[in-house]
């Protein structure tokens, strides 16, 4: 893990296309802005983990369930 110190209005670059900028520091909360191409998805960790969990559940679905769904059309 790379650890960097930044002040308000300073930023870091990830590659050539992603910029992470410190917008505000309020107590223990830091507001950041991310500039990235539209093709790059950006999620908070808890949202990303929820998406991954739902994807795993969908992959675990048996073909029986899919056949039942086809019958209910």
UniProtKB/TrEMBL annotation:
Q: Does the keyword Repressor apply?
A: yes
Q: Which GO terms describe its molecular function?
A: mRNA 5'-UTR binding
Which top-level group of life is the source organism from?
Bacteria
Key words, A-Z = Bacterial flagellum biogenesis, Cytoplasm, Repressor, RNA-binding, Translation regulation
Where in the cell is the protein located? Cytoplasm
Output the Gene Ontology cellular-component terms. cytosol
Gene3D superfamilies from the entry? Translational regulator CsrA
User: What are the BP-aspect GO terms?
Assistant: bacterial-type flagellum organization; mRNA catabolic process; negative regulation of translational initiation; regulation of bacterial-type flagellum assembly; regulation of carbohydrate metabolic process
What would be one Pfam family of this protein? Answer: CsrA
Q: Its biological function? A: A translational regulator that binds mRNA to regulate translation initiation and/or mRNA stability. Usually binds in the 5'-UTR at or near the Shine-Dalgarno sequence preventing ribosome-binding, thus repressing translation. Its main target seems to be the major flagellin gene, while its function is anatagonized by FliW.
Per the record, the similarity remark reads:
Belongs to the CsrA/RsmA family.
Q: Assembly and interactions?
A: Homodimer; the beta-strands of each monomer intercalate to form a hydrophobic core, while the alpha-helices form wings that extend away from the core.
Q: What is this protein called?
A: Translational regulator CsrA
Point out the gene that encodes the protein: csrA
């Amino acid at each position: 893990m790379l650890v960097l110190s930044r002040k308000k209005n300073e930023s870091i670059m990830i590659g050539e296309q992603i910029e992470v900028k410190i917008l505000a520091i309020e107590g223990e909360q830091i507001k950041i802005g991310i500039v990235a191409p539209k093709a790059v998805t950006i999620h908070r960790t808890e949202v990303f983990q929820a998406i991954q969990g739902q994807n795993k559940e969908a992959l675990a679905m048996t073909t029986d369930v899919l056949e039942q769904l086809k019958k209910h059309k």
